[in-house]
Amino acid sequence: MAASTGHRVPRNAYERSGGNPFFLTEILRLAPRRDAPVPATVDAAIRARLCRLPDDTRELLALAAVLGRDVEVPLLATLAGRPPLEVVAGLAPAVGAGLLAAAPDPAGHRFVHILVQQALYAGWSAPQRAEVHDRVVTAIARRGGGAADDARLAPHAAR
Fold first, then answer.
1. Rounded to an integer, what distance in angstroms lies between the CA atom of residue 150 and that of residue 14?
2. Which residue stretches of 68-143 are H helix?
3. Among 36, 48, 109, 126, who pairs with 71 as Cys (CB 3.0-4.6 Å)?
4. Each residue of 46-63: pLDDT tens digit?
5. How many other C-beta atoms lie within 10 A of the C-beta of residue 144?
6. What are phi and psi of 14, to 5 degrees?
7. What is the distance, to the nearest Å, from the Cα of residue 82 to the centroid of all Cα atoms in its chain?
């Protein structure tokens, strides 16, 4: 890959691409830095897949992107103002499309590629992101889950 793109392959390239050759090639060609935004070509491919999903699913995925790559369904349900089973049903088309995977923990899902999560997250404006992160902090603080929740709360509070 380094020979074909002219860039040294960063350590996180596999993680960012999830091993997808198209994503990996585009990352190395267009965004070799670790903190670089999702390349436009990858973003366009992801958005084309998202357009095929129901509006409800896209809305849930956008909220889920603020939570990070790993999505806790009960927390997403609180943010969306819906029962958890309704959220799971709403996410099912994204699972079927290969954008989201059900985690072994029945209360969780995971974006299949971090680039999918990053592309969705980039769709929020800075004030919108701040507002949703604030809602996440409030939701986590209300449930009072101790040290584990404190660790989850910190990144959202910082943002």
1. 30
2. 73-80, 84-96, 114-122, 126-143
3. 109
4. 888 899 999 999 999 999
5. 8
6. -65, -45
7. 19
